[in-house]
Amino acid sequence: MADTKNKVPDQDALARAGKIVRTRLDSDPKAYKVPTDKAEIYAIGEFLSSSECRTLAGMIDVVAQPSTLYAGTEQAGYRTSYSGNFSADDPTIRMISRRIDDTLGMPAKVGETMQGQRYQPGQQFKDHHDYFYPAEDYWKRERKNGGQRSWTAMMFLNTLERGGATAFPRLGIQIAPKAGVLLVWNNNNPDGTPNEDTLHAGTPVTESVKYVITKWYRTRKWG
After folding, report:
1. How does residue 2 score in pLDDT terms, banded at 50, 70 and 90?
2. How confident is the model at residue 75 (pLDDT cuts 50, 70, 90)?
3. Which residues contact 73 (CB under 8 A, 6 or more apart)?
4. pLDDT band with cut points at 50, 70 and 90 for residue 70
């Protein structure tokens, strides 16, 4: 009989999601696996066209509000960007979201609504994990709202020559924003336990404005 006493919340479902996406991307000739043994990170170039990038950046400007953190985890200066959720009924958002679902092999129902983020010079999001901490008060709500996060999908909408990289400090990896690139990573280990090495940050933007879109996947139907 399997030992379930020490399992983390949603561990089996996270392991299944990890295998589904890993298998899908490993067989995709357009997907590049970032070389590290400590996490599963993939990149796909030209995932978005230049026209789509411009359209989505304009949509971010419409919905952007000062970014927030979960209640009880706030720290001044920790997340200084602007962000906003898109309407899932918007035709453009629906099309792009479906494209991400199909690329990862994930059912649409477990995907959160896509969120746009805008970083002006000096703005950043310091080191954090995308998975939820079950010891925090917000977990009671998120557990009912789709459960733990499995994969993160991030799309860069413009290219920055300096600053604004997505950094994984425990891996020694920094990925510079390049327009049209889709970056995805598994927030967990293959066995479904949280992968602490996925600690990452949106480093301070030093010039121009950085636009990105993020979509997170859960273990159950979101919302």
Report:
1. very low
2. confident
3. 136, 138
4. low
Report yes or no: 193 and 121 within 8 Å, Cβ to Cβ: no
Percentage of residues of the chain with pLDDT beyond 70: 96
Residue 190, number of CB atoms within 10 A of its CB: 13
**Residue 73 carries which side chain, given as an amino acid letter?**
T
Token couple for 68: 């927030």
CB 174 within 8 A of CB 165: yes
CA 221 to CA 219: how far, in whole Å?
7
Q: How far apart are CA 216 and CA 104, in angstroms?
A: 12
Query: Which two three-digit tokens encode residue 66?
Result: 């000062």
CA distance 25 to 40: 10
What is the spatial order of strands in the sheet that 41-44 belongs to?
A: 31-33, 41-44, 182-186, 149-156, 210-218, 115-119, 82-85, 65-66
Asked if 116 contacts 68 with a C-beta cutoff of 8 angstroms, the reply is: no
Question: How many angstroms separate the CA atoms of 200 and 167, rounded?
Answer: 5
Instruction: From 2, 14, 81, 49, select the one nearest 218 (Cα to Cα).
Output: 14
User: Could you tell me where the DSSP H helices lie in 137-210?
Assistant: 139-144
- Per DSSP, what are the bridge partners of residue 125? 79, 202
Structure-token pair, residue 31: 């997907």
Q: What does the pLDDT average to over 187-201?
A: 98
